[in-house]
Amino acid sequence: MMSLKECINSVRNGQKSCEELTSQTLKRIRSEDSYNIFLEVYDTESLEQAREVDKRIKSGNAGELAGCVIGVKDIICLAGKKVTCGSHILENYVSPYTATAIEKLEAADAVVVGKTNMDEFAMGSTNENSYFGPVLDPVDKELVPGGSSGGSAAAVAAKLVPVTLGSDTGGSIRQPAAFCGITGIKPTYGRVSRFGLVAFASSLDQIGPMGQNVEDVATILKVISGYDKRDSTSVNVEVPDFQLELSSPIKKDSIRIGYLSDMYGEGLDEEIKKSIMETIDKLKTDGFTVGEVKLPHMSYAISVYYIIANAEASSNLARYDGARYGHRAEGAGDLKGMYLASRNSGFGEEVMRRIILGTYVLSAGYYDAYYRKAQKVRRLIYDDFKNAFQDYDVLITPTTPTPPYKIGEKIDDPLAMYLGDIFTIPVNLAGLPGLSIPCGKTKAGLPIGLQIIGKHFDESSILKTGHYIEQNY
Amino acid sequence: MKFIPTIGLEVHVQLKTESKIFCTCANSYGKAQNSVVCPVCLGMPGVLPVLNKKVVDLAIKTAVALQCTVYPLSIFARKNYFYPDLPKGYQISQFEEPLALNGKLDIPVNGSWKTIGVTRIHLEEDAGKSVHPAGKEKLTESRIDVNRCGIPLIEIVSEPDIDSPEEAYLYLTRLKQLLLYLEVSDCNMEEGSLRCDANVSVRPETTDKLGVKTELKNLNSFRYVEKALKFEINRQTRMAENGEEIHQQTLSWDAAKDTAVLMRTKEGSDDYRYFPEPDLIPLVIDNLWIKEIEKTIPELPREKKERLIKQYGISEQNAEVLTTTRELADYFEDTAKSGKDYKKTSNWILSEVLMVLKERKITIGEFSVPPKDIAELIDLIGSGAISGKIAKDVFVEMVDSGGPPSEIVKNKGLEQVSDTGSIDKVIESILVEHQKEVKEYLGGKERLYGFFVGQVMKATQGKANPEIVNRILKDKLSRLPG
């Protein structure tokens, strides 16, 4: 399959029509999706849309994404289409409106071809928490593809579509990117509008692109970024032409690279450590300024995350009560009975676990000990990064402490699974941008992901660094 | 032992903006059920709230008028609870850091002003309504009307400075008056644009320590607030006198039965799990914004009253009533400006005009007679062109059919007869016609005097100048041989 850049160029050059590209994509999804990736495919509409794009190409006013056929995680709303969030409770829910990110894609003439599978409400690291069954890793069908944007990662890895949209609350773009051997970026909090992204944890969620290479995700990121008056937490800052920036050679003295000195202890896979350190050594050899940094409060990140994210989730998911839309358990008697029965039968186990935890930490008498304290520690983690960024422009870490594991391996040990997000979670807590790119393989042939973290709204530096590593090593 | 009540009031006020607080839906009342909604106020998956700046404008206006400190940074919070008319499962409100703190409102108590503290004012969104089909004994279904979801509200919380149900009534009356002056709300309790909950406790006279409070809800008029408080104070006092323990609980006022019924106890109370709303950034209000709003604050009732007394020389009592609403005071001033006799003008408006408003159940804004016509009518009385009695008939005609009073007087031939010659003649013939009554009068039945006046007025169709009638009649009667 062609990269996004190749697709766009072929359409622009007239080698292929958008309709051909779309129809080939649909054919591929139909014949090659043996991984349970797509929950819904828009056969008719995507072809209609593609023909419209072809008309605009002919008349010379096509958008910059003409030729882009994209899959979208099923947590982002598209008017008239189901948005299940991987949950039974929204199994038949149809959104009445379109998310800003999709609006922007469509305005640039991208064709949304369908919705991808995911962990229920984006809660999970393996895609095993989907009501619609787990996604299999195209690397090896016995492995988990990561989560929660497992479908979006696998769709790129299986070469069904060149690019997809995912969402990332604690690593949900970067970790599956690493597990599937592809590239994905979580933008700065506030860079991409969350309007139309079904909320998991509002202060952490961001939409971001996933693709085969850095340039492709840069192309999509540029289009979906920008202030949106419908999202008060989106920020009105300039959006650089991320893709164009990659075409000029990197200035090695303009990007100082830090790496974590004290993170390579327990739990980190030796092969991953080796691979990351080799890359860092190469960068040093190539003339980059490279040095060690300390993030003293990082060890608290997972605890802080599971307090804040679950607190917000317990509130965000309160609306799914069976009263107005979505799944309702019938014959439950009174109001309270209906709530209990609808939610008990509508939510999966992990979602309920997190709602209960989140409700607990916000309860009277526990708020100060948990939620308020977690907010304070979150601030300390943010300050750690701020200090690190005084000396460095980007930070490099592994994306995950382990390579992908087998389906079912950790499903009964949530705590072990939570620990897998140790490198990605602090980035969300601090609202920073983070990019995951492939960084070689283990001896067993499993993909390794390398994470590059940047300053607020400095996606440019991490994309440039990632692009350099991708092109040179 | 004597027990003293302590009362605090929480007043919810719907703000009069074009659109709702977090979306662009119209802020309207009385529309078809579930017709004024959008994905945002319906809390559909994926939507986000966006704060309406006009809501903040009106909230600041209220806060400044209540002499609160408006905080440079306030934070929205989620109040979490499950109810079908609350689409998101939480209400966006403010909690730890509200918009404004530490204000006050003065109420007139025993001829002087008493200050009631305002603890805080915060912004929040209204919830929807549950609708229960009427006429069914047993409810088999409930419906939800979400039109009200997202209507902007402020909650004004008073300090427990209120010592009696009467003071509570006064506080609410003064607060409503202020809000109407500010034009921030319709304050219509029937439509729910003003709602009140009351907290009340009693304590022995001998201590300053407050007793355990209860909360009263479902108080749909100021009179109910007063009644419910009386009821609850009596209940608590009785319990205290009998040495019974008072429990913290929420009661609902049943106006039909004049009683308060238990809604929930403290143990059963909700834990709202407040936390900062992550979908909204902190609300930053700088001095410039406050200054802009201050400019829009009109003359408030107390200043207006004092000015009317000074400027027009009217009585304090008249000024008090005239300033009940801004519209009435404006009506008075417009009338006074085109007339001469301010006192008569104020009296006339407070008696005749207000009576018509009451009879016809209309407001001064809906009153059709322009102030200059009232001024003209008062001038006609002052110059003796018509009598006060005729003026009332002219006034009825002005209200019913309109038109300047001078024309009505002319067209209907209602000019007052002040010609002593013709009045003399009329009296003469009346005294001749009623010999019997004259005799009785002279024999000591003095109340027949009114009878003679009545006969004169009847003969002149009320047009005779009463002063002249009195003068001549008295003179003639005194000359008759007793």
Helix/strand layout:
The complex is a heterodimer of chains A (473) and B (482).
Chain A (H helix, E strand, L loop, with lengths): L3 H9 L5 H15 L5 E4 L1 H16 L10 E5 L26 H8 L3 E6 L33 H8 L5 E6 L5 H7 L2 E4 L19 E6 L2 H11 L17 H4 L10 E5 L9 H16 L3 E5 L7 H16 L18 H12 L2 H14 L5 H24 L2 E5 L15 H6 L5 H5 L4 E8 L5 E8 L4 H14 L1
Parallel strand pairs in A: 2-3, 2-4, 7-8, 7-9
Antiparallel strand pairs in A: 1-3, 4-6, 5-6, 5-10, 9-11, 10-11
Helix pairs in contact in A: 2-3, 5-6, 10-12, 10-13
Chain B lengths: L2 E12 L38 H13 L3 E2 L2 E2 L1 E5 L9 E5 L5 E10 L2 E14 L3 E3 L11 E3 L6 E7 L6 H18 L11 E11 L9 E6 L2 H20 L7 E6 L4 E7 L9 E2 L6 E2 L2 H8 L6 H12 L3 H7 L3 H12 L4 H19 L10 H12 L5 H14 L3 H8 L7 H14 L1 H8 L6 H11 L6 H14 L3
Parallel strand pairs in B: 12-13
Antiparallel strand pairs in B: 1-10, 1-11, 2-6, 3-16, 4-5, 4-15, 6-7, 7-10, 8-9, 11-12, 13-14
Helix pairs in contact in B: 1-4, 2-3, 5-6, 5-7, 6-8, 7-9, 9-10, 12-14, 12-15, 14-15
Report on the architecture of this protein.
- The complex is a heterodimer of chains A (473) and B (482).
- Helix content of chain A is 39%, strand content 13%.
- Chain A is an alpha/beta fold and 473 residues long.
- Chain A has a domain at 4-245: Amidase signature (AS) enzymes, CATH 3.90.1300.10.
- In chain A, strands 1-3-2-4-6-5-10-11-9-7-8 form an eleven-stranded mixed β-sheet, sandwiched between helices.
- In chain A, a hairpin with a 5-residue loop joins strand 10 and strand 11.
- In chain A, helix 10 crosses helix 12.
- Chain B has 482 residues and is α+β, with helices and mostly antiparallel strands.
- Chain B has a nine-stranded mixed β-sheet with strand order 2-6-7-10-1-11-12-13-14.
- In chain B, helix 2 runs antiparallel to helix 3 (222-241) and helix 12 crosses helix 14 (449-459).
- Chain B is elongated, with a radius of gyration of 30 Å.
- Classes of the chains: A alpha/beta (473), B alpha+beta (482).
- At the A-B interface, helix 10 of A face loops of B.
